[in-house]
């Protein structure tokens, strides 16, 4: 009940509405918190604890034992702790504002007990591991259907720098074909449709990416559960047709691990699709593509959305459009 009220309240926030797409993550978080309260520190107590009776000790125990990050990042647990703490703090602040509780025990944690914030600066891959990964994309692919799919996914990320959600939500209808004089149809672009300002855009495919996507389309029927399944990069085991965020992270992580093993270059500090996107964006900028154009390709409202990558960018590149003397 509390979560539903908070979601309704947050969706009407003019400054930062959570949006429908954010709801599944918040619901998953709240279920994790509720499960923890039901078992009271992993079964240490036999009776469930109501959400409005928690203490600072319960919050600390949850942060220490409850959240389960993806065990593939350098320190996923620290990241997960911070995000869970922040969400708890927001929801309990909402409850306090409505006088459903007398105090917000989450915000009252001692400074030393609050999980540290994430580094706001964007992380990127080293040139060595990037080259190793792109070289690996040029090698022959395992002929198993899922391997062909994963290869196409990785090349799409490396070439187009799509947001993870954008890639997951591509459909067969996202593929744009053209009809040459011989009457055949060939892929030449993907249409990306996102809810945000700037997210609606058409991305041209390279010859290599066209080849990899077509190779996947040729075997996609072996993975898709039915002809009605429209997700481009569909999943075999997921109840929905989309690959999950965790599946996408695992696919990219395994690919980067193989690139590291083959080349001997160390893995980047963070693994997953976001660091691939960050690196591609930085490369475009340092190659001389105007920030305004990179913002368009990235699906951002303007170049200010690239500011978190500034320490990796040539100092002469002005992201904010400020005239420098």
Short description:
With 325 residues, this protein is mostly helical. Helices cover 46% and strands 5% of the residues.
> What is the CATH architecture annotation of the largest domain?
Orthogonal Bundle
Q: Averaged pLDDT, please?
A: 83
What structural category arises from helix and sheet content? mainly alpha
Calculate Rg over CA atoms.
Answer: 22 Å
Which quaternary structure do these chains form?
A: single chain
Helix content: 40-55%
**CATH class membership of the largest domain:** Mainly Alpha
> If helices are DSSP runs of H or I spanning 4 or more residues, what is the number of helices?
11
The CATH fourth-level homologous superfamily of the largest domain = Intergrase catalytic core
How many extended strands?
3
Percentage of β-strand residues: under 5%
Shape: globular
Placed side by side, the strands forming the largest sheet appear as 1-2-3
- Cα distance spanning the termini: 56 Å
Work out the count of structural domains. 2
